[in-house]
């Protein structure tokens, strides 16, 4: 006899719920701008190392233990230039997005914080700093969560209601978020195309899954080389979801990084994709908080709704 496997390998299965997106949309599309620049690993923040890679330099040639000024500059491009280019693309088309905000990074750029607030984009907390939470102790992680909330409250005038770690959470993250309270959802999962409920310490938690599939980070790994590569990949993902959405609507998450897609030769691919999806009628371009609130209203938690499958016997 094996122990039950504490994973859900089944999910909604063959017959997922119809999400009833507003406007009878076939696809809900959420764009996420990851605001990380200024909170990455840095000698100036006492980390003893510089962040090690970007789309322009997949591996730093600077010896370990030395400050990488070139890499710092590549990150600075994101907050100095890339941020404003992405903001203009969305403003021109009257589209809102979600900001995965590392609290310290946004705290260090008041003009960006003000522009985000004025534009009406929502904030999902991306940690206090852009570091891996699975490397933190439980007490360190608790402190980082509290610091992030306090910082964003001060910078934005409102606490964050969503949460997403760098890459992936620790085994303690969701429990600590529940302990802290105030979060309506987290996005620390890549396993579905619809929101779903789970139980954490006996309490319901809404998960709004994220994706690294339609994410500009693939420029970093050499999977995208040109704006056409990026546009074609996102278009194909959208087209398949739009076709399926006649009977089974889903959501599509598109991750953006200021230091990556913010360069002109890449940003033009994003512009093409924004125009492409706006040429379709049954599309709901939504902030992540809008998706979370829609799901909570349309599918409020009821006992037995949680996705915790006991696989094994």
TrEMBL record:
InterPro entries the UniProt entry points to: Glyco_hydro/deAcase_b/a-brl (IPR011330), NODB_dom (IPR002509), PuuE (IPR017625)
Disordered, as annotated region: 42-63
Top-level taxonomic group: Bacteria
A Pfam match: Polysacc_deac_1
Residues annotated as domain NodB homology: 69-286
Function: Is involved in generating a small heat-stable compound (Nod), an acylated oligomer of N-acetylglucosamine, that stimulates mitosis in various plant protoplasts.
Record-stated family: Belongs to the polysaccharide deacetylase family.
Protein name: Chitooligosaccharide deacetylase
Organism: Neoroseomonas terrae
């Amino acid at each position: 006899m094996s122990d039950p496997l504490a994973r859900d390998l089944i999910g909604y299965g063959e017959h997922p719920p119809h999400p009833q997106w507003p406007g009878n949309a076939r696809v809900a599309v959420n764009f996420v701008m990851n605001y990380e620049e200024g909170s990455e690993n840095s000698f100036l923040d006492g980390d003893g190392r510089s962040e090690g890679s970007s789309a322009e330099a997949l591996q730093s040639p600077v010896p370990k233990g030395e400050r990488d000024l070139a890499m710092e500059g590549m990150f600075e491009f994101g907050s100095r230039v890339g941020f404003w280019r992405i903001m203009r693309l969305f403003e021109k088309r009257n589209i809102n997005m979600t900001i995965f905000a590392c609290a310290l990074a946004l705290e260090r750029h008041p003009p960006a914080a003000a522009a985000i607030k004025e534009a009406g984009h929502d904030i999902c907390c991306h940690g206090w700093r852009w570091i891996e939470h699975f490397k933190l102790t439980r007490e360190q992680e608790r402190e980082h969560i509290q610091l992030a909330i306090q910082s964003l409250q001060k910078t934005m005038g409102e606490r964050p209601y969503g949460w997403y770690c760098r890459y992936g959470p620790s085994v303690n993250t969701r429990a600590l978020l529940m302990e802290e309270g105030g979060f309506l959802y987290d996005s620390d999962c890549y396993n579905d195309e619809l929101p779903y409920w789970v139980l954490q310490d006996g309490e319901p938690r809404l998960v709004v899954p994220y994706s690294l599939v339609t994410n500009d980070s693939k420029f970093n790994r050499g999977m995208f080389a040109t704006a056409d590569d990026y546009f074609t990949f996102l278009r194909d993902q959208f087209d398949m979801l739009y076709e399926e959405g006649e009977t089974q609507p889903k959501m599509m998450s598109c991750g953006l990084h200021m230091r990556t897609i913010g360069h002109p030769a890449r940003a033009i691919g994003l512009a093409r994709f924004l125009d492409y999806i706006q040429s379709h009628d049954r599309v709901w371009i939504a902030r992540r908080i809008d998706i979370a609130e829609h799901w909570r209203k349309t599918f409020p938690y009821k006992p037995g709704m949680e996705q915790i499958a006991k696989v094994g016997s």
